[in-house]
């Protein structure tokens, strides 16, 4: 169920490298949020933004009534947001969109593939899976970025006890290369597995193609620009394969029918 509320900021941590973790008191959203869902956020301030921005839920604690997001301050909205102090208010609408559903096969390995700020929803997924009784070693997180300073949530994944494989384009941390390189090796290790991915579009396209070729189920969470996030403006429409349609595809709203889709259906 979707809620619209004004939450008080309880904690706002500077994680370094322009990354921030913000915890907000938002009991209704914390109760209902599922891994992969997102919020539309807006704050008020001198010269503050007029348009909301989407952020994935990084962690929700229904008992404490809190939820957290992790974001990179990279443009006007997020740089302004990084200046908000504890006690300030932030307007949130959510939880929005669909969620990741773990592969139910008992022997399945779960390959969580994150690129940059695609990591937060996969951390929420890994955390919920461990809490639900999945063996941490059945969860392999492949966390990638261009360089070490752009890796997100590495320590949080490690604290869950899951298998963590990091990749960087420049080799400054983990394996030099892309998440697709590591994913290829993980799939080649054999056994039933499923992939869940979030990150920039070129990464998702590479990961999705690899999985389709290997016959591995893969769900991708798209980082489409979302002007409203509520299914109203049609600014986030993407194409999905649909042979029943005359043009061979359907148009769907990433914010409403997604943001998570089967990689085999997405027309990139
Ligand atoms: C479902 C979803 C979940 C997201 N979760 C996170 C998250 O957990 N952490 C995080 O740091 N970022 C997340 N993002 C991206 C985040 O919304 C953008 O970083 C933010 O909008 C940038 O705004 P800005 O003004 O600071 O930067 P800008 O300079 O305006 O934009 C920087 C980049 O952000 C993207 N962007 C800008 N406006 C939008 C918009 N309205 N909708 C989507 N993307 C936009 C574009 O790729 C742009 O190039 C998510 C995006 C989506 C669609
Ligand atoms: S962002 Fe407006 S319809 Fe999806």
**Quantity of strands, as a count:** 17
pLDDT < 50 runs, ≥5 residues: none
How many H/I helical runs? 6
Identify the CATH architecture of the largest domain. 3-Layer(aba) Sandwich
Helix content: 10-25%
* N→C terminal distance: 30 Å
In the CATH hierarchy, the third-tier topology of the largest domain is known as: Rossmann fold
CATH class of the largest domain: Alpha Beta
How do the helices and strands follow one another from N- to C-terminus?
Answer: EEHEEEEHEEHEHEEHEHEEEEE
The CATH fourth-level homologous superfamily of the largest domain: Nucleotide-binding domain of ferredoxin-NADP reductase (FNR) module
Described by the principal axes of the CA atoms, the overall outline is globular
Decide which structural class fits the backbone. alpha/beta
* Average pLDDT level: 95
Beta-strand residue percentage? 35-45%
Explain what the structure shows.
By secondary structure, this protein is an alpha/beta fold. The protein has three domains: 3-96, Beta Barrel (Elongation Factor Tu (Ef-tu), domain 3), CATH 2.40.30.10; 100-223, 3-Layer(aba) Sandwich (Rossmann fold); 224-268, Ribbon (Dihydroorotate dehydrogenase B (pyrk subunit), domain 3), CATH 2.10.240. 21% of the residues lie in helices and 37% in strands. The protein has helices at 27-32, 76-82, 119-131, 154-159, 179-188, 201-214; strands at 3-16, 19-25, 38-42, 53-56, 59-61, 66-72, 89-96, 109-115, 139-145, 163-168, 175-176, 193-199, 217-222, 237-241, 249-253, 260-262, 266-267. The strands form three sheets. The protein has a seven-stranded antiparallel sheet. The protein has a seven-stranded mixed sheet with strand order 11-10-9-8-12-13-16, sandwiched between helices. The protein has a three-stranded antiparallel sheet with strand order 15-14-17, with no helix packed on it. Strand 8, helix 3 and strand 9 form a beta-alpha-beta unit. Helix 5 runs parallel beside helix 6 (201-214). The chain is globular and about 50 Å long. The two termini are 30 Å apart. Flavin-adenine dinucleotide (FAD) binds at residues 38, 53-56, 69-72, 74-78, 117, 120, 223-227, 259.
């Amino acid at each position: 169920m979707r809620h619209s509320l004004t939450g008080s900021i309880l904690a706002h941590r500077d994680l370094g490298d322009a990354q921030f973790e913000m915890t907000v008191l938002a009991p209704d959203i914390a109760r209902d949020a599922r891994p992969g869902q997102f919020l539309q956020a807006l704050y008020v301030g001198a010269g503050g933004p007029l348009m909301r921005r989407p952020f994935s839920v990084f962690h929700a604690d229904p008992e404490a009534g809190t939820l957290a997001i992790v974001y990179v301050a990279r443009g006007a909205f997020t740089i302004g947001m990084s200046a908000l102090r504890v006690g300030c208010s932030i307007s949130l609408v959510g939880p929005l969109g669909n969620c990741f559903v773990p592969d139910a096969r008992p022997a399945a390995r779960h390959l969580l593939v994150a690129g940059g700020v695609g990591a937060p929803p996969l951390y929420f997924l890994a955390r919920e899976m461990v809490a639900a009784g999945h063996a941490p070693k059945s969860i392999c997180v492949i966390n990638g970025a261009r360089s070490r300073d752009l890796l997100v949530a590495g320590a949080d994944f490690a604290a869950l006890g899951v298998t963590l494989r990091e990749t960087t384009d420049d080799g400054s941390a983990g394996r030099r290369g892309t998440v697709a390189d590591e994913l290829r090796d993980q799939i080649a290790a054999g056994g039933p597995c499923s992939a869940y991915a979030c990150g920039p579009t070129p990464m998702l396209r590479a990961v999705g193609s690899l999985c389709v070729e290997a016959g591995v189920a893969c769900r991708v969470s798209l980082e489409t620009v979302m002007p409203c996030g509520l299914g109203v403006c049609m600014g986030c429409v993407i194409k999905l394969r649909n042979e029943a349609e005359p043009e061979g595809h359907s148009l769907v709203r990433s914010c409403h029918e997604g943001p998570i889709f089967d990689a085999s259906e997405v027309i990139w």
